[in-house]
Design goal:
Elements (H helix, E strand, L loop, with lengths): L8 E6 L5 H10 L3 E5 L7 H8 L4 E5 L1 E2 L5 H15 L3 E6 L12 H15 L6 E3 L4 H10 L2 E2 L6 H11 L4 E2 L2 E6 L3 H12 L7 H9 L4 H4 L5 H7 L2 E2 L1 H13 L5 E6 L7 H11 L2
Parallel strand pairs: 1-2, 1-11, 2-3, 3-5, 4-5, 5-6, 7-8, 9-10, 9-11
Helix pairs in contact: 1-2, 1-12, 3-4, 5-6, 6-11, 7-10, 11-12
EC number: 1.-.-.-
Pfam families: Bac_luciferase (PF00296)
GO molecular function: oxidoreductase activity
Length: about 280
């Protein structure tokens, strides 16, 4: 199976805050992929981003299996692949129990969904799977091009690489804050981490597997946990935190730049691109 070439870094951004103009800026800065964050309810968002750019990969991060039938996801994938070649990657995942009333037997749901994608003609090397735990990571290795873990640390990346083995894409998401003031940076990071993610069992269980204590995860998260899940500092320090994922075995890191009051992300992404050598 061919590993998807997204370059070393991309951006992850909630789909309502992605525009063709931003896509062009991100491509010009040298990033290799745009991850459409959350399960997009706008069916045209990927098409607009692809049409506005020339080389950058556009990936869903992720389509929720409970919200979007496999037949619908497959039809969108095939249409976008026909129009834009291998620049579109279908990221799918099972979401979380608290957000979905129908949530039950998640592993079986994932297998069934992948079976349906197979039957509809979506190739394994054109899709990635949201995966945190060992069982789903192994499934990602067997049935897809690789894994797109969310809300993780380089330690998770190290473990995920072991489960995936060589030759499979490992593309973790990493939140960062470009701010050298620890208190201000933590406030920005905590606002994006604590609610909803520290209230969702799949994420808290993963943090427990990584060795975080109950008191770190409780409430809005300890300072140490927030610093690990949303590293902060000057561009050089943040770039080093991102590079730690590559040192741990990642192929690609999806950078989610957090800003105060939804500020324009381009200046920060430009500063990071310079530090990362894009």
């Amino acid at each position: 199976m061919t590993k998807i070439d997204m370059g070393r870094y991309g951006i992850w951004r909630p789909w309502p805050r992605l525009t063709p103009e931003l896509a062009r800026e991100v491509e010009a800065l040298g990033y290799g992929a745009i991850w459409i964050g959350a399960s997009p309810t706008d069916p045209g968002i990927a098409e607009r981003l692809l049409a506005a750019t020339e080389r950058i990969v556009v990936a869903t991060g992720i389509v929720n299996m409970w919200a979007t039938p496999a037949a619908e996801a497959a039809a969108s994938y095939l249409r976008l692949r026909d129009a834009h070649g291998e620049r579109f990657v279908l990221g799918v995942g099972v979401g979380h129990r608290e957000a979905t009333q129908e949530y039950r037997a998640p592993y079986e749901m994932i297998v069934d969904y992948l079976d349906r994608l197979d039957a509809a003609g979506v190739p394994a090397d054109g899709r990635v799977l949201a995966a945190l735990g060992p069982k789903v990571l192994r499934l990602a290795a067997e049935r897809t091009a690789g894994a797109h873990p969310y809300l993780v640390t380089p330690e998770h990346t190290r473990r995920a690489r072991t489960e995936l083995g060589d030759g499979r894409l490992l593309a973790p998401e990493q939140k960062v804050v470009l701010d050298a003031d620890p208190e201000r940076a933590r406030a920005i990071g905590r606002a994006q981490v604590a609610n909803p993610y520290l209230k969702l069992r799949n994420y808290t269980a993963n943090l427990e597997r990584l060795g975080w204590a109950e008191e770190d995860i409780a409430g809005d998260g300890s300072d140490a946990l927030i610093d690990a899940l949303a590293p902060h500092g000057e561009p050089a320090a943040v770039a080093a935190a991102l590079e730690a994922h590559h040192d741990a075995g990642a192929d690609h890191v999806a950078v989610q730049l957090l800003t105060e009051d939804e500020q324009d992300p381009v200046p920060g992404l430009r500063a990071l691109a310079a530090e990362l050598g894009l």
